[in-house]
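Justification of computing resources. Each target in the renewal requires a structure prediction run like the one illustrated here; the chain below, 171 residues long, is used simply to show the kind of job we budget for.
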Amino acid sequence: MYNINNPLHYITANKPVETITLIQKYGFDYPQTEGELYESVDRAAKHHGESFIADMTKIHPDKHAVMLYSNMVNSEYANPFITQLAKGNISVLETEIASLTAHYKQGGSAEEDADFKEKIDFLQNLIASAKQQNGGTLPTDQPNIHKTNQYILIAIVALALMFLGSKIFKQ
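Resulting structure tokens:
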């Protein structure tokens, strides 16, 4: 049964063919029903843990946002903005972009400029991913964000945190 709060189920619902291929790679039979598919995903996650979850992130329909988060410059910098995005506070991100752009235009060392540019790109890509996820609009553009969109964004952030955590612990 599909669980809206399970990020792996979200991936499965949006990428069923890829998920079936993946669970078969992990030794599970071809599911005969949708329910069996979700059960197989749950069992694969339980039995294979991080390796299965990491493979699921590779087929995530929003993997661009996940990869942005996991490969970003510094999680201490990005976490507050991920939180603001989840709350629909796009203006906070736009304000930070404006501030970083102003500092970037003032010029500095090559290292400082690269840092500013990387942060600006990260925030712009974060907004673009949110816009793509919400069908071309930002959460603040919508008078009432549908709960499903909020859950999807939360699932993306949760999956990104799991993925980032697995990278940190492997080091």
